[in-house]
Amino acid sequence: MRFHLLFAGLTALAGPAAAQNARPALPPAPTQTAATPRLATLPLGPHRGTAYVSWGYNREVYTRSDIRFVNTTTDNYDFTFVDARASDKPDFQDFWRFNSWTIPQYDLTAGYLFNDRHDLGVEVSWNHLKYVVDDNQVIHVRGQIRGHQLDKDTLVTPDFVHLQHTNGNNYLLLNLVKRQRLRVGRYLALSAIGKVGAGPLISYTVSTVLGNHAEGPFHYHGWVAGGSVGLRLDVFRYFFLQSDVQGAFANYTNTWLGADQQGRATHVFGSGQFIAAFGFNVPL
Fold first, then answer.
1. What is the reported pTM?
2. Is 84 exposed, middle or buried (0-12, 13-18, 19+ CB in 10 A)?
């Protein structure tokens, strides 16, 4: 009798404790099927910087510009071309030759993407454009040449004036870069790229003014500012293709004229540029 009472008491005490220690059963882990969406693998890891370098070629168009020619030291002229027309000079016929890569209008770029939440970067670019004032065009000429006043439409031949920045019309730009990812996959990533920047014009001019011919040298001619938008396709993490459309404003303030470099040409113009390039990524 005492044994039965003791067993009943222990059972009553153990019942609530067992109920407290019991844990509800967890639902089974979800089973991944072929239809389950998978997170894409980014070609460049988050929060890790990436250096890059690219090479490409370009074509461009230019706005008309007023060009002033002045030499009152070793000659006597001060005249302006009003709304002069200019063109580019692509020279693509031999770009496939190894020793001719820098003859056409080319672009060399080196930059760094921070790969942070803002997806910003910095970049230095050398845009080798070419600018040629079209020969044998009729231009309104205003000013004086060796004491003779001019204010009329004039046929401008190379014997009168020829001006070209063909080695070239060079933009050295420091750019702020913004990347916006559009599509990201395991092996490919498509991004929109925006840039804005400014820098010096380090140009080389060939000119003839009133029979006085001069070529070069490379030197500081003025400044340029511009911006671009484009698309970039990263391939297998380490390679990319990129195309950009760039607009720029060039201000030539210090172009030397004449064999004695005593003459000066000044002008401003806008340029529109299309660039196609390929490059290499270096994750750091």
1. 0.82
2. buried
Residue 15 tokens read as 């019942």
Q: What is the extent of the structural domain holding 179?
A: 45-283
Whole-angstrom Cα distance, residue 134 to residue 86? 5
- CATH code of residue 266: 2.40.160.20
In a domain, 71, yes or no: yes
Give the tens place of pLDDT for each residue, 49-96: 999 999 999 999 999 999 999 999 999 999 999 999 999 999 987 666
DSSP bridge pairs for 31: none
Longest dimension (CA), the chain: 142
Cα angle 74, 260, 153 (rounded to 5 degrees) comes to 65
Model confidence pLDDT, tens digit, residues 153-180: 999 999 999 999 999 999 999 999 999 9
Task: Identify the bridge partners of residue 138 per DSSP, sorted by sequence position.
Answer: 155
Burial string for 30-52 (b: 16+ CB within 10 Å, else e) reads eeeeeeeeeeeebbbeeeeebeb
Q: β-pairing, 161-184 with 205-209? A: antiparallel
Q: What share of the chain is helix, strand, coil (3-state, %, to 5)?
A: 10, 60, 30
Question: What separation, in Å, do the N-terminal and C-terminal C-alpha atoms of the chain show?
Answer: 82
Instruction: Write out the two tokens for 179.
Output: 């990347």
